[in-house]
Amino acid sequence: MKRYVVRRICTGILTVLIAFALNFALMKMAPGDPITTLMGKDNDSPEMRQALEEKYGLNEPIPVQFTSYLKTALQGDLGNSMIYNRPVSEMISERVGATVLLGLTAAILAALIGTIMGICAARREGRIFDVVSSGTSYVFNSMPNFWLGLMLILVFSSGLGLLPSYGMTDTRASYTGIMYYMDIAKHMVLPVATLTLVLIPQYFRIAKSSVLQVTNEDFVTTLRAVGMSEKKIFNKYIFKNAILPTVTIFGISMAYLITGVTLIEIVFAWPGMGRLVMTAINQRDYPTLMGIYLIMSVSIAVVMLVVDIIYAMLDPRIRYE
Amino acid sequence: MENREFISIEDVAMWYPYKGKDKAKATGKKNWIKAVDGVSLSIKKGEILGIIGESGCGKSTLGRILTRLEKPTKGDCFINGVSTGAMIKKDAKEFHKTVQIVFQNPFDTFTPRDTIGKILMRPLKNYKIGKNDQERYQICLKGLEQGGLRPAEDIMKRFPHELSGGQLQRISIIRSMFLNPQFIIADEPVSMLDVSVRADIINMLIDLSRNQGAAVLFISHDIALTRYISDYIAVMYLGRVVEYGTADDVIKNPQHPYTKALISNCASIDPEEKVQNIAIEGEPPTPLNPGPGCYFEPRCYCACETCRQSYPEKIVMENGHWATCSRINK
Amino acid sequence: MEKMKKICKTIKGDRQLLAGMIGIVILLALVILAPVVASENPHHYGKDILNSLGQNGHLLGTNHMGQDIYSMIIYGVRTSLRVAVISALISGVLGVLIGGVAGFFGGKVDTFVSELINVFMMLPSFFLILLIIALFGNSITNVMVVIGITTWPSNAKLMRAQALSLRQRTFVKSAEAMGETKLQILFKYILPNGIFPVIANTTMGMSNAILTEAGLSFLGLGDPSIISWGQMIYTGKQYITSAWWISAFAGIAIVITVLVFYLLGDGLNHVLNPKHLNRGAN
Amino acid sequence: METILKLDDVNVTYVNKEKEVYAVRNASFSIEKGDSLGVVGESGSGKSTLANALLRLHNEKSTLISGAAEFEGKDLIKMTSKEMNELRWKEISVVFQKAMNALSPVHRIGRQVEDIYHVHEPQASRKEIEERMIYLLKLVNLPERVYRLYPHEMSGGMLQRVAIAISLLHKPKLIIFDEATTALDVVTQGQILQEVVQMEKEMDMTRIMITHDMSVVAASCNKVAVMYAGEFMEIGRVEYIFKNPMHPYTQGLLNSFPSLKGENERLHAIPGFLPDLSRKQEGCIFAPRCPKATEQCFRKKPQASYMEDGRMVSCWLYERGGVKDGE
Amino acid sequence: GCSGSGKGSGGDASSSDGSGGTFIVRSAGDPMSFNPDVAGDDNGYPIAQNMFRRLCALDSSKQNLVPEAAESWEYNEDATKLTFHLRDDLKWSDGEALTSEDVKYTFDTIKANPTYYFSASMAVVDSIEAPDDYTVIFNLNKPDSSLVYFLGWYATFIMPEHVYNNGQAWEENSEATNPTVTCGPFKLEEYNQGESVTLVKNEEFADPAKLDKLIFSIIPDEATAVQALQNGEIDFFENFSASYVTELEADPNIRVEINEYPSPIRMLFNFNNDTLKNQAVRKAIAMAVDRDEVSEKVFNEIQKPEYALYPSYVEWAANTEDTAPEFDIEGAKKVLEDAGFTADADGNYITGLTIDVFEGSGYPDTARLIQATLAEVGIQTEIEVSEYNAWSQKVSVEKDFDICLMGGFMGPDPSALVNRIGTGGGSNYGSYSNTKVDELLAQGASTAEQSERATYYKEAQTILAEELPYINIVSFAGPEASNAGFKNLPYDGEGKWAWADYSHVEKAN
Ligand SMILES: Nc1ncnc2c1ncn2[C@@H]1O[C@H](COP(=O)(O)OP(=O)(O)OP(=O)(O)O)[C@@H](O)[C@H]1O
Ligand SMILES: Nc1ncnc2c1ncn2[C@@H]1O[C@H](COP(=O)(O)OP(=O)(O)OP(=O)(O)O)[C@@H](O)[C@H]1O
Ligand SMILES: [Mg+2]
Ligand SMILES: [Mg+2]
Question: Which of A262, C4, D31, E368 is the most buried (most CB within 10 A)?
């Protein structure tokens, strides 16, 4: 176990480094730089360009830039955003909450609803419930999440005027206390619904297929032969065996939480990381992009590790080699 | 028949490094799975040597080494005095032509994607047997018919899963025959087959060794069958040969306690012949760092102090029959 | 002949596969027959702008540029299928080769490659695609290549697992014993026998490629010189309340196409599942 | 002796989308209390199908079972599933071939044993169960610690013994071994067989032993039933049948077995292979492979004939000389 | 369509308490810094305009100067000295007075710092004098009558010397992230990154704002912002796509105004390209652009076709007689034929040209329409769309393009043309060069009298109309929409107050 964990950590670190180098290389190779943004529109002063390049060390050789950045990053300092001139870590920490709130809520809801539906469908295989929910899950699985978001806005926000269409809070009202949280909850309804709807199918399918698979395992036949009631077999044995893949999927979707909600954040103007990323790309804000990427890689690596460990704890069969 | 040893296996060993699990830490040193641990045997031309032993004792590993699908950790085998290691280095194709293997599971011996025709033609093409495809096709037809597989043309068109196990196993042997091998290893060739069809395979192997003078190594855990087919039998335990002799000697007059237990436990189909089974204590062993004493000692019903200290010597009896047990003459 | 019959039978036997097959045939027909089926050239910027459904003979209306939405949807199939097929092909070929080599040769090669696969699996791929496309330009070729080279790891992983287990299979051992070379074995035995889960996965990958392309287009990173549903949604977004048909139908087209590939992939998964293919390997 | 199980014309048919597989046909036989019946037959001859049918483990939707199987006077096939559940394990238990998969991989043996025990004895305390199980483990020659292990932590042989031990939890009257020892090596198999025969005597159980290994039957059963393609060819006492097989199929089977100590005679295979079970056959099912088949064999199914030594043979060769015919 | 009657005008809800109310303005992104002089920042500008003062400012037409910190200003005869007279009633929020020292400090620092946006424009300024607390004199090293306009444009806000002058760079100063000392109708209350910037009324200010609160709500996505406006979640949204105009105009709760200023969309030719060097080719291309179609389809007829070489909106400077040629497919073909081009089998005269555009603001659509009409003439083009930064790198830094479409401010004064088409001008991406034009532009810049300047500029345009180094396609007009419950929006203050100045906004009744 220990060796396994160590090895996984090594892989994680390697991934982060490679991700990082890749990202750095891509950004440096790409046309455009943050200077354009810094100089502002309709400004072509070569002196200013040169002065800015010097100021941000962009005229140094790329390996030098890389190592110097890496060095500070290893010390836990992500540097300052070139555009906003604020610590990147601060910018990320301000945003990450919103993303996690959105992504986590949706992931949990989807996992719960999807798994329950999947189990129900598996138990009623071939019946109306199964056919309908499988069909629906296919359709939602095929739906671009941004489009679904737009359609939901069209119906629930502009059509029926029931729910706010953008943002996290009502800027005008600026509520406090319990009302503040109610307000956030209200703003969350549409984006969370969108995300949940597109996430449900994968849980549904994995739950359904693993229940079906486990149901056909030999040990279930044994339990039947023992005279155990179907209900008990399900609750005590099938469930525990079948829930494992869901755990993995949930873990993986946790890891990709930040990337997964990018489009939704843009559709709903949700003040999260996804938008920070898009802005940073457009502005070529190197430190911010690198910082986000680093955080993202690290969190994926960590979550994956945690998932593996949890999985190992749940499933005694796993051996570490 | 030539009297010189045709195949000689000299002190062959196959140790796999043992990965994982915590035991490794306790002892500190590297752990080995000694799948085959110093086996020396010889086979004459036209002779069938049977190898028996319980699951995991290294029978298949030995077979794989002899076909050079794996390189032994130690030792080598010689065909006509030439090292197989050298042979495969010099000309791998030629080596594989000389040594052929028939596997246990006929259902899995052929790629499910190709027709039998294609499968049979491949080695012919590889070895440039026959001038053109047409001639090769004829060779295949002839082979199939000789093996009792009729209508051959129809069988050539079929896919492996459309044939029965017995048919497949026969095709597997026929395919080996195309190359005129001098040494055939049959690794449990009938254990996956129905009783009613396996006789064909056994008879085919016997004919092969008799007619073509090929040496055959017959691996099986079915003792009765092994005795039936073999001239000699070697009994393996945890990677070592513990007893060797002519088939009748070993079966009727077993010397090693393990052989005795094995044979006594082997039920006969004759219901009247109720023998007293010799029980073996303990759980089946693993080949992980066995020794230093006799490997069978922990389960042996007549073990003594000497067995615990060092691996017993080979004790040779009449008729080339030998066993490694310190208690034999006492 | 018989083979064809059998294939037909398996297709008929699996409802999802059947639906997927019918879907894909229709889509392919649309690709070929687009000029016949479409009512006008989708690149024609006509006089009728923002026509609603059925107005002036525009079945699904027009957009602000005067392009016929129905025709655009029809021609959009070409783009989506092209993206799907080419990117999946790139991803499939890379995955199969890399995974196959790793699994078959094993040892150090495998350790190295599987670590590489692990690393690539953990990279946030949509993000990477986004970054590359945003930074390096959004031609459809870029999009296809980038999707292809960022999604191979899952294929490689599948292929590696297949190769690893196939390597132990008797027919591979027996091929080796029959004197076939490593390369022959890899291409004649390992790849053909191990490729089916990859094919199913690749089909699923096609759905994702279509969705990814749509997502990129939605962020304004689509190729402007082609007709793509993602871009229709993107431009239609401006008209979402006044001319909803621009983005709504494009979205439905995406849903249907992606659905077809999902059904196909799932169906293939059932049918090509190695469990159904091999006997005696239980 | 009292009859514990009596089968009367049991048929089991798998109904799939495209075809029906007649896996067991017209099975009729009976077992007395304390008997041990070996069912032999080639792979796919319907042995497991029959075993599962007796415990009603088949998927009810896709399997048709007809006929009557009386267990102590109650018909297993007509029983409600509640009654069936009552019976399962307490009266009839079964040991499957693939012990490796017969237990849930994510629960410890102890947990599973407790759950299984509680099905019929909800009041039993943990300690009681553990004691009972440990007693049984000892009986099958396993150490106590096994109780606390996960299935994957044991070897196949150990698991097989665990499975046997679990099947004995409630001292069932009838126990079915479905190829329970086939996967084991000779030594272990021999040992387990011996233990089983021993236990049987102690506990007064009836046993059905399904296997394709004749020697296993020879060593551990007193009656044997030879099955071919879903039908019983010959049923009778082991010593009679093995000494003097009457049905051509039985003869063929025994001919293809070399003896351990006797003379080395040439082995004979039965040509051909198992017929397609989804097709209804007009005549004797074995006819296409039978060396002694006559034209009649292909036309009409032979009746079961009962011989003097109590055996049943289903073959035209004996139609005349059979006891039944004389009555 | 749906006319978003759901919430009506949310502004009323909070205004019922009788106070000035809250006004919510859509912002496309986060401000880069709260020191508005560091960079030319579109998102930061409106915030700064309401928290800081500058000497003078351009109004929403971006043509007229209005006074801010300075009551008045004047040039000397030869336009080499610019004098400002400051108001004496302006105070920083910490009570200190805003004086000429602050102004001098601000512009000295900008001049000394090449990384600050206005630094390059300060090149003409020799020195700054502050003879007394309320007078500031800019001494120029050459005549430049346009400087005052540029002072009213971007990044010229007066910074408090007593706070900033502590040896720290502006962008590093904590004031740049959290401004406590400001001078304007509003002051900062709260900034939530990615969400909103909240300003509250500065009671101490000399001309107090009517509103209580001014919030900049950050909504990058345009469609979302339109939704929000219709739902009453925001009150003001400027410069959105023309496509929304019809729909918003139909909404009784929303007031839509079209605000025009001199930033036409134009097509620029690269003179380094051998084909495009040929005047006939440029002319043919110019004749193949159907401005009416572009205006109608891409800009919903909000942005009108523009034929003049300088925005005709600036009436005094634009030459509306000598203009680019009209749309004429056959004429274009003839121009090419006359110049010796022959059509190939497919009827193409010229192939292989690329049109570079950046994503957004209708450029790709415009390019597509032009591509289609060019193809009719027999000129085959490829469109390459890049994201803005990459486009900018390609066009402005590497100058690696054939034809590009671009927009951008051509004001506030025609003197800015030097930069765009003058030989060696910083924004002269197409490397156009004509000595006569250079001369005329120089004369225009060094003359203070407007009618005299007009003649120089018009003559320059006559040459440009012949040579066609670029052509304008459509004029610029930004639709701006607001909650109908408010009046005196920035664009209501033409000639009265600065663009993006919200201090005059008040409830309609
Ligand atoms: N590649 C390998 N790596 C590690 N251990 C191996 C490897 N191959 C075989 N072994 C081990 O070597 C031992 C002997 O295996 P082998 O397959 O030769 O046994 P066998 O006698 O053929 O058994 P069976 O009768 O079950 O076929 C076993 O304990 C097995 O686990
Ligand atoms: N679910 C099923 N649907 C259709 N046919 C089936 C099904 N299960 C088994 N069969 C068929 O029924 C026949 C009898 O199968 P069964 O498993 O009873 O044989 P068996 O005698 O136990 O064989 P083995 O010795 O291999 O265990 C076989 O031909 C098999 O293919
Ligand atoms: Mg083996
Ligand atoms: Mg069975």
Answer: A262
Q: What domains lie within chain B, and their CATH numbers?
A: 5-18+32-113+180-276 (3.40.50.300)
Nearest-angstrom CA–CA distance, C10 and C18 = 9
Q: How far apart are CA B27 and CA B50, in angstroms?
A: 37
Helix axes C191-218, C140-168, angle to 10 degrees: 150
Q: Which CATH number fits domain A95-314: 1.25.40.80, 1.20.1250.20, 2.60.40.1220, 1.10.3720.10?
A: 1.10.3720.10
Q: Are B251 and D162 in contact (CB under 8 A)?
A: no
Which chain E residues are Cβ-neighbours of C48 within 8 angstroms?
none
Average pLDDT, chain B: 83
User: E-contacting residues of C 192-231, CB under 8 Å?
Assistant: 220-221, 223-225
In chain A, whose CA is at the least distance from the CA of C121? Answer: A15
In the stretch 45-64 of chain C, residues with CB closer than 8 A to chain E read 45, 49, 64
Task: List the one residue out of E155, E149, E152, E79 whose CA is nearest residue E120.
Answer: E155
Domain that holds residue C20: 2-281
Give E365-398 pLDDT, tens digit per residue. Answer: 899 899 999 998 889 998 888 878 788 888 888 8
**Residue D119's closest chain A neighbor by CA?**
A228
| C220 with E359: Cβ contact below 8 A | yes
Q: Residue A160 corresponds to which tokens in the numbers above?
A: 């029926």
Q: Is B16 on the interface with C (CB under 8 A)?
A: no
- pLDDT at position E481 over 80: yes
Ligand 2 center–CA D14 separation, angstroms: 9
Q: Do D104 and A241 touch (CB under 8 A)?
A: yes
In this prediction the ipTM stands at: 0.79
Interface touch B251/D219, C-beta < 8 Å: no
Give residue B50's pLDDT band: very low, low, confident or very high (50, 70, 90).
very high
Phi-psi region of C76 (alpha: psi -120 to 50; beta: other; left: phi over 0): alpha
Domain range D3-91+170-324, CATH class = alpha beta
Best probe residue, ligand 1, of B51, B61, B73, B225 (max atoms within 8 Å of C-beta): B61
Q: Which of E247, E293, E385 comes nearest C241 by C-beta?
A: E247
Whole-prediction pTM: 0.81
Cβ separation B126–C176 shorter than 8 A: no
pLDDT digits (tens, 9 = 90+) for C222-264: 787 788 888 888 888 878 777 888 888 889 999 999 999 888 8
What are residue D131's phi and psi, to 5 degrees? -60, -45
Q: How far apart are CA B109 and CA C238, in angstroms?
A: 63
Q: Is the peptide bond before E31 cis (omega within 30 degrees of 0)?
A: no
C195: nearest CA in chain B?
Answer: B113
**Cβ C162 vs Cβ C95: under 8 Å:** no
Domain count, chain C: 1
The 3-class SS string of chain D reads: CCEEEEEEEEEEEEECCCCEEEEEEEEEEEEECCCEEEEEECCCCCHHHHHHHHCCCCCCCCEEEEEEEEECCEECCCCCHHHHHHHECCCEEEECCCHHHCCCCCCCHHHHHHHHHHHHCCCCCHHHHHHHHHHHHHHCCCCHHHHHCCHHHCCHHHHHHHHHHHHCCCCCCEEEEECCCCCCCHHHHHHHHHHHHHHHHHHCCEEEEEECCHHHHHHHCCEEEEEECCEEEEEEEHHHHHHCCCCHHHHHHHHCCCCCCCCCCCCCCCCCCCCCCCCCCCCCCCHHHCCCCCHHHHHCCCCEEECCCCCEEECHHHCCCCHHHHC
DSSP code string of E42-57: TTTHHHHHHH---SEE
* Structure-token pair, residue A286: 């190197």
d(Cα B234, Cα B256) in Å, to the nearest integer? 11
